[in-house]
Amino acid sequence: MIHVVTAENMQDYAGALDQAFRLRHRVFVEELGWSNLARPDRREIDEFDDEHAIHLLALDETESVIGYSRLLPTTRPYLLPMVLPQLCEGAAPSGAHIVEWGRICVAECARTSGRRLNPTALALMTAIVEWGLPRGITSFISEMPTSWILRLLQLHLRAMPLGLPHEIEGEEIVAVEAAFDGRSLRQLQNKRGDIRSVLAPPRVSFARLAS
């Protein structure tokens, strides 16, 4: 299931977050070669991993992190305008109804081959829509390979490029704003073949019970 980790419950996920940062390092630094993100402790953490970040953790039955992505509010400085402004023609979108979705990665053990969308990645995307809609969030910004745009449209997310693609680290990347609604959630559930929630119930720690 997908666990939503915020500043409020971060203490309940210390071990899982450590796994997530190490997964990010394996994927983005060691596999994709983004050497500017390398750290001696092999935990990929940047300036946006602050108290405003929302971490989506896909955990298996052993509590191992098999997938990860991060949401950032666009009412504050976020990655697109601060790090990749060349991908956006005009002002970067912002608003309480928009988040930035990034650092998307799946552990080696959970990867699949073929054209079918990876189940872990699909669950992470479903989590954004399922978690976001009740909170008034109706779209996300993401920097992604251009080939992903068609996939978003097939999932009934209304994806619109924010600028022309640029080659980054050897791959053609485009910034997209993808709007979603209840139809998007139904399509995501249809693709998953399961209408049950992907969101894990909130954890209640001993410390919070004691308080």
From TrEMBL:
Alphabetized GO MF terms: N-acyl homoserine lactone synthase activity
Transferase listed as a keyword: yes
Keywords assigned: Autoinducer synthesis, Quorum sensing, S-adenosyl-L-methionine, Transferase
Class of this enzyme: transferase
Pfam families attached to this UniProt entry: Autoind_synth (PF00765)
One example of a Gene Ontology biological process annotation: quorum sensing
Gene3D superfamilies: 3.40.630.30
Recorded catalytic activity of this chain's protein: a fatty acyl-[ACP] + S-adenosyl-L-methionine = an N-acyl-L-homoserine lactone + S-methyl-5'-thioadenosine + holo-[ACP] + H(+)
EC number: 2.3.1.184
InterPro entries: Acyl_CoA_acyltransferase (IPR016181), Autoind_synthase (IPR001690)
Family, similarity comment: Belongs to the autoinducer synthase family.
Name recorded for this polypeptide: Acyl-homoserine-lactone synthase
Naturally occurring in which organism (per UniProt): Methylorubrum extorquens (strain ATCC 14718 / DSM 1338 / JCM 2805 / NCIMB 9133 / AM1)
Gene: mlaI
